[in-house]
Amino acid sequence: MVPPRPSLDPEGLYARLGVNAGATQADIVAAFRGKARLLHPDVPKTGDAGAFVRMKQAYDVLSNRALRSAYDSKAREAAERPQGVADRPPRTSPPPLQPHTASPPPPPRPAATDWNASSPVRAPRLFDASLMVWIGLAVFLCVCLYQATVHLLAPPPMVHDKIPPNAATVAPLSPSAHEALLYGPPPVRLAGNPNFYVVPVSTPAMLWRLDSEHSTLVPMGQLPPFSSVQAIRLIRRSGMLEVLINDHANGFVSADHVTPGNVAAARRAYCGYNAGPPPYDGEVLERRGNGNDTLEMENRAVQPVVVKLRDSMGAVALAVFLGPGSHAALSGLPSGTYRPEFAIGELWSRACSSFAGGMRARRMQASLTLPGAPPLVVAAEDNEPATTDIPDQVFERN
Length: 398
What we know:
Blueprint: H1 13-17, H2 25-39, H3 49-62, H4 65-80, H5 131-153, E1 196-198, E2 205-211, E3 216-223, E4 228-229, E5 231-235, E6 240-244, E7 250-254, E8 258-260, H6 263-273, E9 284-287, E10 293-299, E11 305-310, E12 316-322, E13 327-333, E14 336-349, E15 354-364, E16 368-370, E17 376-378, E18 387-389, H7 392-396
Parallel strand pairs: 10-17
Antiparallel strand pairs: 1-4, 1-8, 2-3, 5-6, 6-7, 9-12, 10-13, 11-12, 11-14, 14-15, 14-16, 15-18
């Protein structure tokens, strides 16, 4: 039997978005936006944080041309590789026919043994055990009774409300990311190289420590959603994940409360979960200073953009959200020379001041001077003016 040929979507990235491998960039964007409206955790009934994170991870790859090209090339190479044929057992010729001969007579049965002549054999009985076995059983029962008594009479463990100070917190992505605790307590990052992070579920994720004296787990506090931890091993019998707290101690977290991912993955998930209501077309997200000048902006891309104008000191003077194919005229701007920046992506996060999915940040090389500046145009990807890529953290900085 010939084995099936490999799929052109080996990791199921296209399947997560519900498109085929030949989908255009616009089809991928449209599929992501449609599913985001259903799976985003803020949507009642259909919201699913886990499914949304998996879909966004697929979109981060397929919306990036370089990553998608590498993914498709790898899938095509696997599909074109010759498939091995299952090994077949070698054919052997049937054994030659032998002339029929009479089978030899069966050997004679041994004579019946006179069991009455020998001593009877009986099954072992409980009382045949030696004295040392009885002493061992008695000691074992006494130890079990002692352990049960100590466990029942032990005082309840002390519960600590806070995580020890050796768990460093993750710095917010922007100064206003956690104003008035709108999005709950900020995530924390325990020691080590994080490879898991806490997901938001109905019950809080508790951090436990082992009390070796009483052989029990004592709660240390709650880990906020999207906190990063380094997992050491999984204890399958209890379903607990052993994590590194600091250089001298380990703790335990229920495996149901975490998912694989590094710090960057935890931040993307946090931004998507706390995206908040989507901005309206032309919404001013941030403004510093007032004046009498006016500036027109136009978005010719197929995705939403956020345009920022930075002054000579690098501070953001204006940040505006523009939907695909939209136009806006901003008034009341102060005169001066500004450096334009913009970011393209999906699902603008108010908590992180960045796009949660497929974000790409760029800086225009030409400065903009008010008054008298021409309209600022964000073109499609193939028709962009002279721009340079900048890190997402640089764009997020206010």
